[in-house]
From TrEMBL:
The keyword Secreted applies. It is found in: Secreted. Residues 5-119 form the Hemicentin-1-like von Willebrand factor A domain. This is 16163_t:CDS:1. It comes from Funneliformis caledonium. It comes from the Eukaryota. InterPro entries: HMCN1-like_VWA, Thr-specific_kinase-like, vWFA_dom_sf. Transmembrane segments: none annotated. The keyword Zinc-finger does not apply.
Amino acid sequence: MEVDLCFVMDCTGSMGSHINAAKDCILNVAKCMEKMKPSVKIRFGFCGYRDHCDGANRLQTFPFTESYVQFEKDLSGVSPMGGGDTPEDVLGGLNVAVNQMSWRNEARIIFHIGDCPSHGRRYKNIDDDYPNGDPNGLTAERVLGEMKSKNIFYFFGKITSFTNEMVNIFRSIIGEFPVYDLNSVDTGLLVYKFFEATCSAIKTAISLIE
């Protein structure tokens, strides 16, 4: 079994520990999947997003690769920075993952990790420079609809309750999907949670296409 796994991650200043957890567990995830019967080969990809005020640093992507060494090297260049108001460019990150990554394998996974919702008061009535939604005109209905049409499985790593309304809206569009608790102040526990959630997402996606 071969899998395309794209991490879509908020890379603003508050996400440092979660970015580091991703870096720390990737190789262990790969080794875990190789031990499965039959073994699972993974192509890793990454789409990091920040916010519209961050200019050229708003989006940061790395194409799919089968080299875990290359992927770890790519992630080493990702640093938490930026972010303006509370919401972030969630739809921008997801849109790049869906439409600009070279999806190839039958098992296709987006594992989205974030602590804040997308822009728009429909997702959360908090301080928002773009209360009417994404300034580039992206909508959840469009982005998630394209995700579903490409048979990409969506999984979400929850860090705060700020994303609750967004998750409910996403589920109303594409149906139920797993949400993993990734909230932890303990570094070791966070890495373990990240590892367990990633492996679970992969195994769930594989079971749904077999």
